[in-house]
Amino acid sequence: MKALKLDPRTKLFMIFAVSFIVMVNAVTPLEWAVRIAVTAIPILLLAAEGRYASAIRFTVCYGAALALMRFWLSAESTGVFSAILVGYCGIVVQFMPAMIMAWYVIRTTKIGEFMSAMQKMHIPDGISISLAVVMRFFPTIKEEYAYINDAMRMRGISFGGGRYTKMIEYRLVPLMFSCLNIGEELSAAAVTRGLGAPVKRTGTVQLRIGAADIAVTGFFAASVMLFVFAKYIR
Amino acid sequence: MIELNHVTFRYKGISEGGVYDLSLKIRGGEVVLLCGASGCGKTTAARLINGLIPHYYKGELTGSVTVNGRDIAQTELYDLAGVVGTVFQNPRSQFFAVDTDGEITFGAENIGMPPKEILARKNAVAGAMQIEKLLGRSIFGLSGGEKQIIACASVSVLSPDIIVLDEPSSNLDCEAIEKLKDIVAQWKSQGKTIVIAEHRLYFLRELADRMLILENGRITKELNAEEIKKLTNADTENLGLRPMTLPEIHGSHQNTDIQGDVLLLEDFRFTYKDGKHGINIPRLELPANRIIAITGHNGAGKSTLARNICGLERKCRGTLTMNGKKLKAKARLRHCYMIMQDVNHQLFTESVRDEVMLSMTDKSLNDQQKADAILAQLDLTEYADKHPMALSGGQKQRTAIASGIASSKPILIFDEPTSGLDLAHMKQVSDQLKKLRDMGKTVIVVTHDHELIRSCCDHIVRLENGCAAENCPLGE
User: Fold this and answer.
1) How is domain B262-473 classified at the architecture level of CATH?
2) CA nearest A230: which of A21, A36, A30?
3) What value of ipTM does the predicted structure carry?
4) Which among A139, A178, A188 is the nearest to B52, CB-wise?
5) Each residue of A64-96: pLDDT tens digit?
6) Chain B nearest C-alpha distance from A154 (Å)
7) Of A177, A199, B171, B319, which is most buried, counting CB atoms within 10 Å of its CB?
């Protein structure tokens, strides 16, 4: 399981399929069955990346949310408490699976692979480079954010002295300054290495569609078709 | 090969760091060292050669720069990519890819080289630099030294005739600097023209053919290879430069018993998620109210130890005993203050004075007076109302120190406070550390700057693979 390697195109399709199925409103048991089956994939991917604790935690939260929605909440529920519960269930059931997929894709895709995949799909270099920069920046933002958080804990201002606006301001302002600085130095380094040359970029990464890609793509294509059929055609 | 003809450049909106009427000829195959205090214009000179000026950094430019017969102002940056390669100061912000292979091939892919040739070149470069074991790794898991070597490899793949290095050693330890020296020597033997802007000079002593000293944007002194080798430490001191030899650091093994109060660290064990890096220190006694240097190679656990002393790692079970009190991680957060390597991470407010007041724990009416007194101690009075982000690097660092003093915590920890600093600024930091000691603080400095250790530290802890290999007062 550890050596699972998917083509970036398969991964993009996975994000699309998972997001579609979990975010569109499901009503009938068949739709729910498809949705739950599809949610199992992000959980397996978490496990494949060695995040067993997160996989178990999410499974428990997901199970709890499903149970809540099935037995306690209905369209008629009122009151603040049930509003919070509805919010919780919505986030866990409808957003988290897609978030986990996005996390997995960013974590496991190398920039070179991504660029080659975009080239094979005939996406213009400008668009794929911008997307690649965004991908490149996620780990950087995470690193910078961790440092800022440390600094705030050390000064005892993690909660902004009790004011929410300060709590956010103290985090975002230094984060923006660091990201601006890093971004500027990063693009200076990139242009000295020929980024933006008016020639066709080449890629050294050879992409191959493997058995896992076909299986995963087949599974998601079937799920999407079944879901669409259940929802709109039947 | 490179010719600067009466070049004057001023950055837009910044008065510092420009160059004035700079004329310079560099022959093919020469290794030229540009040095001088911060803001003397050496980085600007490097940027004039690699084309970032005028194409990326904007400002007023007169005069002409010709590289390999091309007029830089008329040549697009991507056309220069195969001619001039650049290694930058900060390993954190010069990587485009997230894996080492992708990074090394990035430049060649950009200029549309055929994939087969790129791979052949990548393997040749990896072989020549002996970095096969770094291939196929994530950039975020590399040490600073390893990152800088990958940066050199990614320049080498394009095989440019000219290589510019802008303060490449700032974040490196001695071992990594040796490796960098080998790479520069290799480039020199291949006949490349090399221009290096640097503060730390000792590793280039044997390699530099010429040394240019800049002051306020003008070349004030020029030395040839013979003269460079003859430079003594007294000469470099007079020129305001860092020494040409690496000062030796010795621990004294005579009186290892600590005089006065003791900080006792017990059970400091911590491992990162990768299972490899971490620290394992069952017991360590440090003298209170002294300046303690923590040294060791990149990746030996220096920063990890500092973070654990500070209480930033919740999982660490270790305790610190001082004045008869045993402090766990959470309590240590209230007794320690760290000045981070990148101080931008710890400046939160809109003015220097607010920054200091934010740290004051006992909220009394005369806070502002106290804040101003602290600012005066650190020569920050005139900047009290300025935004911290508008200050220079050294001023930001002093602002962070000021809020550390304001927090009245007894232990101050510095993470690499002198990386990338020139002689004068290094001395300034050293003076501040001494001042803090005189105030009764215990100062812990994580550093691989031997010159800083020599100038102010009392005690040294050397780490090796996460263990304390040496812990003793600093000898002569």
Assistant:
1) 3-Layer(aba) Sandwich (3.40)
2) A30
3) 0.85
4) A188
5) 988 888 887 766 667 788 888 888 888 898 899
6) 6
7) B171
